[in-house]
Amino acid sequence: MEQATDPTENAAVKTARGWWPEDRRTIVFAMFVAILSLAFVSPLAALFRHALKEELHSHILLIPVISLYLAGMQRESLPKTRQASPAGWVLFALLAVLIYLVPQLAKWNDGWSLNDQLSQSTACYVLLLVAGGFAILGSSWMRLLVFPFGFLIFMIPMPDAFVVSFEEMLMKLSAQMAEIFFQLTGTRVHRDGQLIELPGMSMVVARECSGIRSTVVLFITSVLASVMFLKSPVHRLILVALVIPLGILRNAFRVMVLGLLCVHISPEMIDSWVHHRGGPIFFGISLVPLFLTAAWFRYREVKREKSAIESDLPSTNP
Question: Phi and psi dihedrals of 164, rounded to 5?
Answer without folding.
Answer: -60, -45
